[in-house]
C-alpha cells in the first residue's frame, strides 16, 4: 500500500511538556499524509502557527523499524491500517521536552494510540525554522483548504442527490394517490352502472303485461232493492173495550 493513496489526516492536539515547565504551549494542528513524489514515505507535520513548527519524513524502512519496536504483528497492510487508525483516534498527544537555543522546545514527538491498552505509535519530529517553517505552515493551510473544499463539494452533491430523490419519491406518491383515486372512481362507476341496470330490469318486469299478477275478484257488497210483494206486511192491533171493564 502506498501512502499516496491515503486521505490526508488533520487533527487538533494540545501539546504538553514531558516535565514541568513554565512556558505555556498553544494548541497545535497536525497533518499526516503521503508524498506524491515518494509513495512509500509518510510525512507528519505539526504547528501552532507561531514559533513552533515540527516535521518528520518516515521512509518504509523507518516505519518497518517502528513496527518492530511497537510489536505490531500481521502484514504490512495491517500495520499501516493500525498506524492510520491510531492517528485518527482521540488519543493523540504532542509531547515536547528540552529547551532550544532558538526558543521553545528542543524535541517533540507525536504519540498516538488506537485504543487504551493497545500499542502506542511514537513519531519523533524535527523542528523547522525560518523559511522551512513558513512553507510548512503554508502547506498545511492550503491542504486544509483543499480538503475542506472537497468535503464541501461532496456535501453539496449529496444534498442535491437527496433533494432529487425526495422529489422522485414525492412524484411517485402523488401518482400512487392519483391511481388510487382513479381506481375508486372506476369501482364507483361500475357499481352505479350495475345498480342502474338492476333498476331498469325491475321496472321492465313490472311494466310487462305478461308478468302482471291477476287481480282477485271484487268482494264489494251492493245494496239490492227488495220487491214490494216480498216485503213483510205490518199488521196493526185493534183494541176493543170489554163488557167486564170497570167503569170509572
Describe this structure in words.
The protein has 3 helices and 7 strands; from the N terminus they run ββββααβββα. With 248 residues, the chain is an alpha+beta fold. The chain has a domain at 7-129: Spindle assembly abnormal protein 6, N-terminal domain (Dna Repair Protein Xrcc4, Chain: A, domain 1, Beta Complex), CATH 2.170.210.20. The protein has a 7-stranded mixed β-barrel.
| Cα-atom radius of gyration | 56 Å
Q: Could you please say which CATH topology of the domain at 7-129 applies here?
A: Dna Repair Protein Xrcc4, Chain: A, domain 1
CATH architecture of the domain at 7-129: Beta Complex
Distance N to C terminus: 169 Å
Give the number of helices. 3
Which term fits the overall shape? Answer: rod-shaped
Q: Low-confidence parts lasting 5 or more residues at pLDDT below 50?
A: none
Into which percentage range does the β-strand content fall?
A: 15-25%
CATH class of the domain at 7-129: Mainly Beta
Query: Strand order of the main beta sheet, please?
Result: 1-2-3-4-7-6-5
Structural class: alpha+beta
What's the pLDDT, averaged over the residues?
81
Q: What is the string of helix and strand elements?
A: EEEEHHEEEH
CATH superfamily of the domain at 7-129: Spindle assembly abnormal protein 6, N-terminal domain
**Largest sheet report:** 7 strands, mixed, barrel
Query: What portion of residues is helical?
Result: 40-55%
Kindly state the number of beta strands: 7
